[in-house]
Amino acid sequence: MTEEPRPTLEAVAARAGVSRATVSRVVNGDPGVREVLAERVRHAVEELGYVPNRAARSLVTRRHDAVAVVIAEPETRVFADPFFALQLRGISKELTSHDIQLVLLLTEGRDDHERVGRYLAGGHVDGALVFSLHLDDPLPGIIRRAGVPTVFGGRPGWPQAGGDEPGAPYVDCDNRGGAREAVRHLVGLGRSRVAHITGALDQTSAVDRLDGFRDVLGDVDPRLIAEGDFTPAGGERAMRELLDRVPELDAVFAANDLAASGALRVLRERGRRVPDDVAVVGFDDMYPVAEQADPPLTTVRQDIEEMGRLMARILLRGRAGDEPAEPAAEPAGVVLPTSLVRRASA
C-alpha cells in the first residue's frame, strides 16, 4: 500500500489561486499579506492537510519553534513537587498558544550541565527558560556561552554575576514581602516565639524569605531558625530540631507548603495541637498540599502558573524576527505580588 504524497507548497498555492511566495509568507506568519489572500491560503492549507516543513521553514525564519525549559533539579525532585508542575503548566499553555514545542531538560548532576550546554549551543531551540538555580550552579555561565536568549525563574544571585546579573531577564514573586506578611500575621495572633523553617539557602527565594522573617522579628534567637530544603522530609527534620531546641515555641513560618506539611506531621507526633499550641504558616498555596493539609494550611499565595506563563511570554518577545522587547530597567526583573490565604492552621 503506497502512501499518498504529502501536499506541497505549490499545491496550496494552486488551490488558493495565489503565488507560492504568498503561501510561504502566510505559513511563516508574515503579517504583510492582505487578509483576504491570507484567509484563502489558510482554507487551502486546511483542505489539503498541508503540514509545513519545519526544517525548511527554520532556514527562512531563523526560528526552530522550540523552547528549552531547564530545571536545575533531579527528576525525582521535579516530579514529586507540585511547584514544578504548576510552573510547567503555565509555560506550556503560553508556548502552545504560539504553536511552539517545549523541550524539557533536567540536570541530575554536574555531568548533565555540559550536555545541556551542548544542546542549547547546537541550534535546536529559540531560547531557554531556566529555574530552580542554586547559587553555585554553573548553568548560568554555560547558558551564556551557548548564546541563546534566556529568561530565569527566580531572582538571579549567582556569585559570578556579583549578585543580580545586570540585564538578566527574570520572573519572581515578592518572596521577602510575602514572608513579612506571614510573620506579621503570626505576631498579630499574639505569638511570641515564632520559628522559621528555611528553604535551601543556596537559592535566592529561600534567602529572601528568611530576610522577610528577620525584617519583622529583628535580631531573632538563632535557635528559632532551622534550615530545610523545600521538601516534606526537610520540614520534618527542621521541625524536630526546633522543638528540641525551643520546646516552648508557639508558631512556625515554613518557607513553602511542602516543608509546612512535614512540620505538621511532627507537631502531631509530639502531641502539639495546631493552631492552639503552635500556629503554622506556609508559602506557595499549592493545590492540593495547602488545602488538604491537616489542618488546612494558612499560607502565602504566589501565582506559580502565571510566573511560568510570563517567563515564556517575555522570551517569545525577543525571538528572531519578532519585535524586540522594550529595554528594561536593571535588573530586568518582573516581581509578582503575593497575598496571605487564611485557613485553619493559623
Explain how this protein is built.
By secondary structure, this protein is α/β, with parallel strands linked by helices. It contains 13 helices and twelve strands. It is 42% helix and 15% strand. It has a six-stranded parallel sheet with strand order 2-1-3-4-5-11, with helices on both faces. The protein has a six-stranded mixed sheet with strand order 7-6-8-9-10-12, sandwiched between helices. The model is unreliable at 160-165 and 323-331 (pLDDT under 50).
How would you summarize what this structure contains?
This protein has 346 residues and is an alpha/beta fold.
List the topology elements:
Blueprint: H1 9-16, H2 20-27, H3 35-48, H4 54-61, E1 66-71, H5 75-78, H6 82-97, E2 101-106, H7 111-121, E3 128-131, H8 139-146, E4 150-153, E5 170-173, H9 175-188, E6 194-198, H10 204-217, E7 225-227, H11 232-245, E8 251-254, H12 257-269, E9 279-284, E10 298-301, H13 304-317, E11 333-336, E12 339-341
Parallel strand pairs: 1-2, 1-3, 3-4, 4-5, 5-11, 6-7, 6-8, 8-9, 9-10
Antiparallel strand pairs: 10-12
Number of strands: 12
- Give the spatial strand order of the biggest sheet: 2-1-3-4-5-11
- Helix fraction, binned, reads 40-55%
Q: With helices defined by DSSP (H or I, 4 residues minimum), what is the helix count?
A: 13
Query: Unreliable runs, pLDDT <50, ≥5 residues?
Result: 160-165, 323-331
- Oligomeric nature of the chains: single chain
What structural class do the secondary elements suggest? alpha/beta
Would you list the SSEs in sequence order as H and E?
HHHHEHHEHEHEEHEHEHEHEEHEE
Percentage beta strand: 15-25%
Rg, Å, rounded: 25 Å
Task: Give the mean pLDDT.
Answer: 87
Q: Looking at the structure, what is the overall shape?
A: elongated
For the sheet with most strands, the description reads: 6 strands, parallel
First-residue to last-residue Cα separation = 69 Å
